[in-house]
Amino acid sequence: MPATATIAEAAEQIAADFALFDEYRDKIEYILDRGRALPPMPEELKVDAHLVPGCQSRVWLVARRDPATGRIRFQADSDAYIVKGLIALLLQLYDDRLPEEILANPPKVLDEIGLTLFLTPGRSNGLASMIAKIQAHARALAESSAAAPAAA
Q: How many domains does the chain have?
């Protein structure tokens, strides 16, 4: 079960967390702390097939659909703490959600909190690549469940 009932509530929490910080340095430190707290991904999942293209750092992202709930569970990791922090924000929004929820809710909060204003262009591009990969997983899983025959 997600920590918040909806993606909108998760976005509100992210905005509230960032509102606590006035200084750029404090916001970056918060992102770094989130990265340090991200659970590590099992080493056997850190394979080239799970790498997110377009990121400066190595980023692995795995999605699986819970057959009982239809929700997508993500696991992700990076070799850079700031990127791990960005992943943690994305997982706060999108982990344990239905594919249709993910596709219907782009991460507008990241622009609202000014995240891309204090990331390097390379990190901003990597963030966009991670978002695109999450959406691609959601799209593929939504399509595969729509194509699956209904249980009798």
A: 1
